Amino acid sequence: MSVRPSRTSGFALFDAPYLLLTLVALLWAINIVVGRFVAGHVPPVGLAFVRWVGATLILLPFAWNQLRRDLPLIRRHIWLLVLLSGTGIACYNAMSYYGLQYTQALNGLLVQSTAPLLVAVWTFVLFRERLGLGQVAGIATSLTGVLVIISHGDLDTFLHLKPNVGDVWIIAALVVYAFYAAILRNRPALGPLSFLAVIMALGSVLLIPFALWEVLQGRILHFDRVTVATLAYVMIGPSLVAYLFFNRAVDLVGANAAAPFLHLMPVFGTALAIVFLGEQIAWYHFAGYALVISGILLATVSARARRKA
């Protein structure tokens, strides 16, 4: 497996890819919970648009020096940056928020567990990169853990799950995001802050016509306390922090090694439901956690072995 070498950052957290990926999963799990919580109150495209505009404005002062230095690279690779922005920023987030307007939390969590498989498909289609048996076993093990948690250990739960329009939108969004994760290895050698600032700014621009269409449909942001609190979180947590962490982790270990950590999203989502919704912890939570963690460890060890081979 070929992963672009990356220099150490000099900052311990940024040289610990698996810790970064765990934090990414937590921040994105909260984002899903928040997106579902405000469904029907905050319009989905408006939420995505304001999220990225706000995140760009917050990041811009910190990224300014890198942007000035990287301007020739940005101009040279502008269409690749537009592709990365359109898939990983604009389409994925708007489509996910739209899907959360219609799907149940249980369905949404289940769909998220397909992400590592989709990343593996894209890396094979685009780069003919095959997964090792250990990585396949790790993905299957952690996926099993996710299913145990979501089903509450009851197979009958899945017999009553029926795809709806929300599920379809979220699956489509994950297909798009898996493509972004796969091609991220080819991103221009911009500084991490300038790269993030560019793709967020481009994503904001790409969302403008869809945001205007949503306004014309009468779906307007109302800046009450719920909306403001939601925007504050999505601008910083799952946007600035999580994307910076995810991009760095993929730079260090590659998309296939990073993908199994996305299984932690539904695990964290379940934990959040227990804490904030008063659900009771049960045996299947412990069983699911054990399987997810085992699968991640198996896939991670296998990926390290393949890189050294």
Automatic annotation (TrEMBL):
The keyword Transmembrane appears for this protein: yes
Primary residence: membrane
GO CC annotation terms, alphabetical: membrane
Membrane topology per record: Multi-pass membrane protein
Compartments, record wording: Membrane
Keywords: Membrane, Transmembrane, Transmembrane helix
Keyword Transmembrane: yes
Residues passing through the membrane, by range: 12-39, 45-65, 77-99, 105-126, 133-153, 165-183, 195-213, 225-246, 258-277, 283-303
Domain EamA, chain residue ranges per copy: 18-150, 165-300
Top-rank taxon, per record: Bacteria
Family stated for the protein in its record: Belongs to the EamA transporter family.
Name recorded for this polypeptide: DMT family transporter
Species annotation: Xanthobacter dioxanivorans
